[in-house]
Amino acid sequence: MAEVASLRPLAAVLVSALAIVPILLARDRPNVREGITMVAALAKFGIVASMVPGVLAGEVYVTRLGTLATGIEATLRADTLGLLFGLLASFLWIVTSLYSVGYMRGLDEHGQTRYFASFAASLAAAVGVAFASNLLTLFVFYELLTVATYPLVTHDETDEARAAGRKYLAYTFGGGVAVLAGSVLVFWLTGTTAFAPGGIEGLANADPVYARTAFVLLAGGFGVKAALMPVHSWLPDAMVAPTPVSGLLHAVAVVKSGVFGIARVVLDVFGPETVGDLGMGLPLAVVAAITLLTASLIALRKDNLKRRLAYSTVSQLSYIVLGLALLGDEALVGGLLHIPAHAFMKLTLFFCAGAIHVETHTDDISNMAGIGARMPLTMAAFGVASLGMAGIPLVAGFVSKWYLLIGALDVGAAVFAVALLISGVLNVAYFWPVVYQAFFETPDDHDRKPLVSGPMGGRFAGAGAVPDGGKGEAGADGPDPVEADAAAEAGGPDAGTVGRPATDETTDGTAAGDERTGTADRAEQSDDHADEHAHHGGPPAGGWESRNWLGAESTWFMLGPILTAMAGSLALGIAPRLFVFLRIVQEIVAGLAGVAG
Amino acid sequence: MSESYAVLLVAVPILGSIVPLAGSLWHDRLGWPVAVGVSLAHLALAAGLAVEVFAAGTVVYELGGFEPPFGIVLVVDGISALVALLVGVVSAGVLAYARRAGPRGNSFYSLYLLLLAGLSGMTVTGDAFNLYVFLEITGLAAYALVATGDHGGAAVAALKYLIIGTVGASLYLLGVGYAFVATGTLNMADLAEKLAAVGYTSPLVLASFALVTVGFAVKVALFPLHTWQPDAYAEAPISVSVLISALVSTVAAYALARLVLSVYTVEFFAAVPTARTMLVGAAAISVVAGSVLAVSQTDIQRMLAYSSVSQFGLIVAAVGIANRAALVGAVVHLVGHAVMKGGLFATAGVVERTTGARSVDEYAGLAERAPLAAGCFAVLALAMVGVPPAVGFVGKWYIVVGAVEAQRWAVAAVLVVSTLLTLAYFARLVERMYFTEPAVDVGEPAGGVPTVPDGGRSVSTGMVAVVVAATVLAATLGFAASGIEALLEPTLAALGVI
Amino acid sequence: MTAVVDLLLTRYNYVAVVLLLGIGVYMIGASENLVKKVIGMNVFQTGIFLFFMTSAFVTGGHVPIIKEGVERYVSPLPHVLILTAIVVGVSLTAVALALIVRIYAEYGTLQEDVLREIQTDE
Questions:
Q1: Which of B129, B152, B184 has its CB closest to that of C103?
Q2: CA distance A69 to A568
Q3: Residue A596's pLDDT is what?
Q4: What is the rounded distance in angstroms from the CA atom of residue B236 to the CA atom of residue B151?
């Protein structure tokens, strides 16, 4: 691996950081402001992409910035793993910027300058995370990413958004603290924190108790942003943010920075071999497997589309972590490849949810029957992406899940393969109804979808009139303290979501337009929620109007990004080898010295 | 020549402090220009001294030509040179701030210069009793400065500060007495040798260590000896709050480190591990208690005062750990905290003058009303929380590395978690400033705008410049940490620190 | 018993130091009157001064002025130190009293509890 001194890694970070200033200055001229964002996004992607051929040829671009503290260098280093994340984040920023323009203007949001500035800052931090050459530098950008995304989470300035922001800060800074402690331990054990493919040398021989502690702290700390259970609950709450934020940051940049951190820890700090020797692979894999199954189950019972997507994200992120934790070649390829695969698919899904919100102000799945007529292209893209999520061939998700499955069997961990398959079925269960009812049902005539609506573990008698509370599905997975906590913390809005299905029950067979009047019987559980959405949401009185397939449903600012992201997930699925990500991933795995299996 | 920089560092401000008062006979607007002249001269001396120390090693000046250990010496090594420079820079900055922010009048500037002299003296002295004298000069000036607040509460706060501070200084004096009885000397270098000869476990030595640390714990304001601090910081005029929050506790913490390292030395800790454990334990408690108290405050200045209790816990813990990384961290955090806390008080002053807000709730929606001040406050607060790469993080990193190297796990845990504790009281402010609508009618503070005699609500360029400079320094000073580490290398080696 | 008597007879200075320190701290802590607090502060400091003085004492020592045929002198250094400390103490008392005058002018009381009430009412 040849190191090449180059300013390109630094430029990739700085280009969006420096864009903040003109963005703030152009606050009274939205077109200029968004133009700057686009230029910065294109420049950023150009710089990152320009490093791809070199890195694939075995070069590593390095920018040295001097010493940070205790002799640890502040160095940016574009190696294969970093490039994977950097390329992904910077490419999707272009798409998301376009979409943001459509979304923010479509909703006439306040504080757009702050929004675009924070977005640029977040991307600078995310690419910094990608190119950091050691744990300390990574930590610097990791924390800056938290700070930069906080204004985006709290963007709405409602009580709900503020609470979500507080939770976000508490969780991610808590994770940051663990990362800090783990980094100090690694530094103390080895005298360095610099990433080395296959692991830092001294760690293999270090006292296993300290090494394990360091691993738990690091994996646990990064696990907060990777939304591993039981520290995932900030992510669903953070869905109060505008949808492009949920899309790019809470499905790609921020959460993937956590996953990326775990990847760095497993691959470049400890090395797969040492992780295996320490016996830390299996516990991590178990946590990931539990998370991916539990989150899928929880997703089933979310009626709010964005929340359902959030739990889907929690679940899918654990695929990646599982791939890393299995420590085999194929599983690593699958896990790492799932980073871009999931990014493209989930971005598509979020963009669709956002488009539906902007155009029809509908947030709840139970109000989306027949919406395929109103938004055909959007829902078609949604359908393609959800097929990919479930792992159907020809879409990106298939390739990575295939590798994951093979990898799980390869290392003799059939139980994880079963978990992956079950989760695939659950994916179908929670995505298919959305697509099906959008195209093949109408608001007046739709049956209830398999939505688990009673609180898991049952409800105390008299707490509320939920007719289907006693159904088998609710009891099937038993009490779930994590979810109960999450529901309790989420307070009003979540209670509202749970209460929704009751709405369907009462409005079934009546005109959908009447839906808003029949609220009395559930007022006590979803008061604020009902108020919030009293003026919009759901199909209009006469059912969804029909729009053509040529983009009449929305602006091209939004449709373009949706279709681009969807095309990306198809491209990744149909021709993974032509697309650069698989090659990068294989380079990464090939570059690891002494991978087990 | 350069040895005399050390004595001039003290003599120039002391002599200068007479001028404004004496000059009042002729001119009542003399204070500021005199103070600026003296302060700049002081800054130049401190800079010259630092250059000299880092080029050629420790500078020693024998007062009046009396040879040590009989005469008083001034000793400037790497740590004291940095602290002297810090004193010079911050006090010069405060002048730029105080010109508009007040208090005005020649007596303020006399006290200001007296405080400068006391702080410089504490920094450079190499004699234990001399340290007491400078400690009291600093104290007297600080008490009087707090009392310049035009509210009656300022006098009450100043008296409280005076009584508690005097008890603290007296305890230090008593500790020096015990050391003197044990060794018959007051020169720090000489004390170090003779204390070792007496034996570190001798009751006299132990008692003197205990008294000295408790005395300075009062001056540094460690929990539970911090009670003077919130009142003093909250009631003093804002310029004074900036000055004393940035420097007085800082120099006291420096002096404590000086005594621990140069008088009792690292070997004392090795011989008496209990002493170290108690010092570090008290510091750790201070970190937690200070944060908890800060969270419960509604007044911004009080909250910042309790934040100091917590932050100085970090520094004293590092002094107790006393290995290389921890001490570099202590110095970095000492400098960083001075910049950040001084900057926060300065920003709070700007906010109060422009919007009248001084409580946590009144900060709601501040980003709309005072965008620059809100931005600076947010950056400084995040730096204090320890968001990298700001200086607050770098200092903490060094201290935590030191704690882990010393394998003091409990302290390391407290230090790491202190990030979250600090976040607890600053995050709510940031949230209020940016994401909350202002509550009803906070535009006009009740009872009109208090403060300054000539009623100005205006904010001068100097004030804004100080706030912005502090913000920029807080954000960028972290990158100087490696340089500071390299500069301190010889000093720490000479102190026997591993 | 004899130990106590012995202590009182030979180390009475130290007993006095401890008493003065104790009385001083008690006055600072327990008295509500600000002036009495300041007096307590002075008593406390006096205890410390006495401690230093005692440490200078040498049995059979002479006044430290060099004289023919005198071998033993008491140590002059603590005297010098305490002279300085007394000056510091006087300045502190002066500042404290000045503050008290101002407090009285402002609030019309010297009782700390009353003062606290007034301040909370404000």
A1: B152
A2: 41
A3: 40
A4: 9
User: Taking residues B399-424, what's their average pLDDT?
Assistant: 90
> What is the mean pLDDT of the segment spanning A204-210?
86
More confident residue, A399 or A508: A399
Residues B436-456 have a mean pLDDT of: 52
Closest CA in chain C for residue B71: C77
- Give the sign of the dihedral formed by CA A293, CA A139, CA A582, CA A17: positive
How far, rounded to the nearest angstrom, does the alpha carbon of residue B345 sit from its chain's CA centroid? Answer: 13
At residue A445, what are phi and psi to the nearest 5 degrees? -130, 80
Query: Which DSSP symbol is given to B165?
Result: H
Q: What is the DSSP letter of B477?
A: G
Interface of B with C (CB under 8 A): 129, 132-133, 136, 139-140, 143-144, 147, 152-153, 155-156, 158-159, 162-163, 166-167, 170, 173-174, 177, 180-181, 184, 186
The strand ranges marked E within B104-161 are none
Option in A69, A181, A185 nearest B481 (CB): A69
Structural tokens at position B415 = 């230090």
Per-residue model confidence (pLDDT) at position A420:
87
Residue A464 binned pLDDT confidence (cut-offs 50, 70, 90)? very low
Average pLDDT across chain B, whole number: 88
A32: nearest Cα among A127, A143, A131, A112 = A112
User: Helix (H, G, I), strand (E, B), or coil: what is residue A186?
Assistant: helix
A192, pLDDT greater than 80: yes
- The residue count of chain A comes to 597
Query: What are the angstrom distances between the C-alpha of B336 and each of B90, B282, B388, B455?
Result: 11, 22, 13, 33
Q: Got the DSSP string for B252-296?
A: HHHHHHHIIIIIIHHHHHHH-HHHHHHHHHHHHHHHHHHHHHHHT
Distance between CA atoms of residues B80 and B319, nearest Å: 15
Q: From the centroid of its chain, how far is CA B414?
A: 22
pLDDT digits (tens, 9 = 90+) for A138-172: 999 999 999 999 988 888 888 888 899 999 999 99
Q: Rounded to whole angstroms, how far apart are CA atoms A14 and B12?
A: 46
| Cβ–Cβ gap B159/C96 under 8 Å | yes
Chains touching C (3+ CB pairs < 8 Å): B
Do the strands A2-5 and A59-69 form a parallel or antiparallel pair, or are they unpaired?
Answer: parallel
3-state secondary structure of A83: helix
Average pLDDT, integer, range B259-280: 91
Please give the Cα distance from A365 to A371 (Å, whole number).
10
Q: Which tens digits make up the pLDDT trace of A272-308?
A: 888 888 888 889 999 999 998 999 888 888 888 888 8
pLDDT of amino acid B179: 92
Please, which pLDDT band fits residue B88 given cuts at 50, 70 and 90? very high
d(Cα B20, Cα B121) in Å, to the nearest integer?
Answer: 21
Residues shown for chain B: 498
Closest CA to A78 of A95, A92, A58: A58
Domains and CATH numbers, chain C: 2-121 (1.10.287.3510)
For A399-422, write each residue's pLDDT tens digit: 888 888 888 888 888 888 888 888
Per-residue pLDDT, C20: 94
- Given its phi and psi angles, is residue A511 left (phi above 0), alpha (psi -120 to 50 degrees) or beta? beta
DSSP summary character for residue A449: P
Question: The tokens 């305890």 sit on which residue?
Answer: B171
Instruction: Choose the closest CB to A69 out of B398, B405, B437.
Output: B398
